């Protein structure tokens, strides 16, 4: 769930590239500018162009590292990489979001700028499992319209685009589950973020108009049709412009609290604790740990109930579950912020069917489920509420469930 949030010159550097054709053009043009001609004047095209989407989580927050259930989906904002193997042991990486070309070897990954560690870190993890000698270096140019620091998994988009590219170029033959596991190891072992596997799974396995039911213990996945448009519904993403980082202490503390609760209760993972047993374990835990445990256990139940309603063709009825999830994240898990709460409260007051923060919390984005005919009024109300609170104007856009990582050229 970690997001890239260290853009050198700020969010204004993000180019207004929206359509996929624009992203592909930006990737090819950037590659040609930085890597198209070598020191001997020889022209080089990329070996291919790969992309991966960001993700939003419909419901199921902080359940992934507890072995539970989550229901994310790939969004229609993507990170595109033009990549060419350069026959050396060095990676050279450039991006439309940063000024400089960054060069480094796998052994240097810990010393590189953080955004580059998601790419070369993925290479390091894959190479450690499937050693290929000293000629796996590559020239890489990145173009993206996944918002940074917004809880929409810009980091997973980097990892997964790099993962499918290296998998093809190095002929590793890995499936999407194996690539997702490599992405999680990149986050945990190299970036230092104690996240689960949800973000990479959604980015790799997403499909149009579907969410991905993810069993985070078995890594089994199932596509669940959303059917929002057919019911006259729209899901909005509200980027609060409040950046966060899951490698920070707050996220690690929540995970440690969950692990402590499971250990005291005597279950391998909180996934193994049912909601019916919560009253029985109440006296075993201090108040804070109990509330952390209660959020995870009840959130797993909310995910399964939401899936049942979607499968029954009743997407309108998931609204109250989304709101209950946010309330639990606010009161029991304590990862919402004033801005995230303001989005939810304002949306509900103006007719939304449900709303919740999405992502790890401590900033980032919220989602709002509403009748499509109410979306403009709700968006305007949220903007007005932010203005009245002297917060920066949020970015609001429709959430479109889209295809996962792929080779584009």
Textual characterization of the structure:
There is one protein chain. The chain has helices at 20-35, 114-129, 154-169, 176-191, 198-205, 249-265, 278-281, 287-311, 319-331, 338-349, 375-388; strands at 48-59, 69-85, 90-95, 102-105, 138-144, 210-215, 221-225, 233-242, 354-358, 364-371, 395-398, 406-407. With 409 residues, the chain is an alpha+beta fold. It has 2 domains: 11-51 and 77-207, Ribosomal Protein S5, domain 2 (2-Layer Sandwich); 229-398, Alpha-Beta Plaits (2-Layer Sandwich), CATH 3.30.70.890. The strands form 2 sheets. Strands 1, 2, 3, 4, 5, 6, 7 and 12 form an 8-stranded mixed sheet that branches. Strands 9-10-8-11 form a 4-stranded antiparallel sheet. Strand 6 (210-215) and strand 7 form a beta hairpin. Helix 3 packs across helix 4. The model is unreliable at 1-17 (pLDDT under 50).
Supply database-style keywords.
single chain; 409 residues; alpha+beta; Ribosomal Protein S5, domain 2; Alpha-Beta Plaits; 2 domains; eight-stranded mixed beta sheet; four-stranded antiparallel beta sheet; 11 helices; 12 strands
Please render the helix and strand layout as text.
Elements: H1 20-35, E1 48-59, E2 69-85, E3 90-95, E4 102-105, H2 114-129, E5 138-144, H3 154-169, H4 176-191, H5 198-205, E6 210-215, E7 221-225, E8 233-242, H6 249-265, H7 278-281, H8 287-311, H9 319-331, H10 338-349, E9 354-358, E10 364-371, H11 375-388, E11 395-398, E12 406-407
Parallel strand pairs: 3-5
Antiparallel strand pairs: 1-2, 1-12, 2-5, 2-6, 3-4, 6-7, 8-10, 8-11, 9-10
Helix pairs in contact: 2-3, 2-4, 3-4, 3-5, 4-5, 6-8, 8-9, 10-11
């Amino acid at each position: 769930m970690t997001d890239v949030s260290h853009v050198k010159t700020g969010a204004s550097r993000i180019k207004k590239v929206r359509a996929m054709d624009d992203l592909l053009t930006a990737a090819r043009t950037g590659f040609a500018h930085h890597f198209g001609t070598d020191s001997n004047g020889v022209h080089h095209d990329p070996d291919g162009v790969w992309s991966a989407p960001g993700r939003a989580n419909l419901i199921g927050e902080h359940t992934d590292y507890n072995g539970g259930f989550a229901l994310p989906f790939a969004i229609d904002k993507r990170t595109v990489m033009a990549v060419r193997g350069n026959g050396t042991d060095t990676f050279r990486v450039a991006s439309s979001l940063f000024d400089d070309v960054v060069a480094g070897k796998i052994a240097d990954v810990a010393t590189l700028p953080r955004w580059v560690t998601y790419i070369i870190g993925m290479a390091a993890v894959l190479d450690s499992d499937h050693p290929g000698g000293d000629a796996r270096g590559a020239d890489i140019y990145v173009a993206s319209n996944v918002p940074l620091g917004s809880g929409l998994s810009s980091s997973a988009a980097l990892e997964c685009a790099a993962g499918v590219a290296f998998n093809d170029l190095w002929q590793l033959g890995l499936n999407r589950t194996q690539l997702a596991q490599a992405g999680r190891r990149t986050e945990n072992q190299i970036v230092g973020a104690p996240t689960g596997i949800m973000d990479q799974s959604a980015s790799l396995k997403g499909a149009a108009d579907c969410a991905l039911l993810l069993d985070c213990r078995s890594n089994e996945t199932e596509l669940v049709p959303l059917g929002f448009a057919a019911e006259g519904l729209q899901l909005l993403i509200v980027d609060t412009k409040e950046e966060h980082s899951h490698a920070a202490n707050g996220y690690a503390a929540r995970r440690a609290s969950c692990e402590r609760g499971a250990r005291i209760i005597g279950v391998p993972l909180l996934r193994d604790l049912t909601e019916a047993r919560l009253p029985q374990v109440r006296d075993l835990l201090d108040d804070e740990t109990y509330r952390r445990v209660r959020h995870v256990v009840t959130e797993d139940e909310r995910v399964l109930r939401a899936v049942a309603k979607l499968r029954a063709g009743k997407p309108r009825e998931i609204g109250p579950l989304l709101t209950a999830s946010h309330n639990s994240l606010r009161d029991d898990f304590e990862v919402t912020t004033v801005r995230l709460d303001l989005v939810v409260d304002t949306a509900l007051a103006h007719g939304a069917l449900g709303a919740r923060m999405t992502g790890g919390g401590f900033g980032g984005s919220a989602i709002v489920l509403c009748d499509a005919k109410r979306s403009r009024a709700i968006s305007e109300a949220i903007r007005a509420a932010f203005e009245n609170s002297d917060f920066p104007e949020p970015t609001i856009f429709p959430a479109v469930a889209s295809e996962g990582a792929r080779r584009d050229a």
